[in-house]
Amino acid sequence: MAIKERKTLQALRGMVDILPEEQGYWRYVREATVSVCEGYGYGQIDTPILEDYSLFSRGVGEVTDIVEKEMYTITDKGGDTIALRPEATAAVCRAYLEHGLHNKPQPVRLYSVGMPMFRYARPQAGRLRQFHQINVEAIGDADATIDAEVVALCWQLFRKLGLKGLSLQLNSIGDPKCRPGYVEALRSYYSQQEGRLCRECKSRLERNPLRLLDCKVPGCQPLIEGAPRSADYLCEECQAHFQALTRYLGLMEVPFTREHRLVRGLDYYTRTVFEVQTSEEGQQNALGGGGRYDGLIEELGGRPTPGVGFAVGMERVILNLKRQGIEPPASPGTRVFVAYVGQEAKAQAVGLVSRLVRSGVSAMLGPAGKSLKAQLRQAGSMGVPYVLILGDQELEKGVVVLRDMTRREQREVGLEEVIEQIR
RNA sequence: GUGAGCGUAGCCUAGCGGUUAAGGCGCCAGGUUGUGGCCCUGGAGAUCGAGGGUUCGAAUCCCUUCGCUCACCCCA
What we know:
The protein is α+β, with helices and mostly antiparallel strands.
């Protein structure tokens, strides 16, 4: 296998650098997440980027697009098939099992922020091959109060971030007892209309009838309108669970709309599914989504254990923060720029910068071989508020010039007391 | 995987068959001897994504290829 030669090296398709100017948004989102999640009593977890391939094929579902065509799989040097994680839930459940977290008080509330995920798909607005998620999971409690808590937490996160114009869609897709009946109803309904289906829908009818409901082709919309609704096929337990959930959400003042067409792409969902969407143009309007996954832990080899959770796409959140003109708080920046003229001054400046930084004053050294003018120009363009100037004259007197860049004033300060003066 | 649009210096853009590819931002250096933001002057930086073809002549036309973007699929 020949290694492809590139004249200009660049990041892989769908993978981007996050430069310093962008980091404010990331920090803002991370801090909001930590604050909301910790506020709800969730503990942070990080899991490895690589996992055994079978964790995802078993957890996410063998026939999902994610596993079938979007996973980055690798054979390592020992011959094992491993994969870059395409999502977090399966990995968090693996950690729950591996560390015996069922011995802790249930449910175990976990969250993660900024874990990179990988999916091999064509990039577009709001979709990358390496992207980052916020992930929240509550494992070990089947009660609808936990569904409500997780949904409310998710909604609160978006409120905290300051995003407007979002909607919360909610639905129940039943459990292993009642869903087969519903899927069968859908299938027979659509089979009768087969001539009118778009090409995609024809294959969905074979592969995953639930997905028929979120086809975007205009011609298919009337069919969706008339399709059987999951609500009418839920068993008593699922019905009761959903009703309890909606009641709790009402009491928590979380505004949601029941969306009968909402299904989710991953196989492990049971009962509750939800999604937070923007009204913005563009098809990538889901900022986050999740639901209940009562069969997942058992699928991964554990005892039957219920769970609920959701994921939020950080890139999509930041995209919308920008669209809505929400700016993260500015970072303080460097406080002192140390300019110097001459060889001995250079040496002294090196020591001075080090002392400043060690005593908690952020500082940077001027560039070597530049005129004082150039150094000041640089300090000015970088917005550094104070410049210390060190040259032969100052060295002789044992002082340093402290220049206030905003006031355009300067004075001499003894070398020993600079740090105190500038703090 | 499918479809569409686009590829000119670090960034934005002009040029759309004819001599040394133009401008703005940014960067660098000067406007006297150690002092910034405005202004003025100068400079560096582009094999016009790459390869092939048409032509006396191509950044400008054609083909191929790579890359980017957007959309579909799917999803965060």
